[in-house]
Amino acid sequence: MNRQQTQTVAKVVITAVAAIVVIPIIYVVFYTVARGIQAISWDFLTQFPTNGMTEGGIFPAIVGTILLTFGTAIAAIPLGISAAIYLAEYATENRLTRAIRLAIVNLAGIPSIVYGLFGLGVFVLFLNMGTSIIAGALTLGLMTLPIVISTSEEAINTVPQEFRVVSYSVGATRWQTVRYQILPQATPGIITGVILGLGRAAGETAPILFTAAAFYVPQLPQSMFDQTMALPYHLYVISTQVPGMPLDIQFATALVLLTFVLSMIVVATIFRTIMRRRREW
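User: That's the sequence. What structure does it adopt?
Assistant: Structure tokens below.
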């Protein structure tokens, strides 16, 4: 087999593998849209559940998901990017930093249910936050942190060394170099990692099951120390705990959650594209 034949075979194999991965995802998305779009209405998006959750809307679950995602962003993004900057620009390469990076990778692979139990033990019980939005957001923030750190550090390391050399040559300090040269160039990659982490957090059920989510709350949360409904947990409840729940409502709830996550990804992709066009390399 010559080089051209090898390249053709490799291209066919890679295309087939990509199709095997992508086609089921596309099928799931279109099937969810087809089954759920019938139940989507303005009332469904703006009203509270009624009649044992078999009627009404999912407005409090939407609000709760937004609050939890926003809280996760506050908890994870500043700390995650700061840690990435330290590891990429300030920390020396030794056993300690290698151990820290290994720990970060391992933390990213821990099942979400473990984070939920940790949040229950630390935030809900030990710190006496109770089952609340802030306890759920901190738990989701811890779960998201390894993803933000890893992707942000990788984005910072991809910035060419020439930017650092030129900045230092004109008398800039290390922080000035990071602030005005490195971070602007690494922003597209950092945004990608942040959105991946937040997208995962927005769709998680296990962590908020122990720390934040409620079966039903008759009013919107008044503070970060209140319980809240959330789309992932609400979908779990109506799918497994509510007898006679119409399938259309289940798929409509799944469609709203899917739309919420995909909207974050689309906005991040647009912003990342704009930033890449301004990049100087």
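The longest strand covers residues 49-50.
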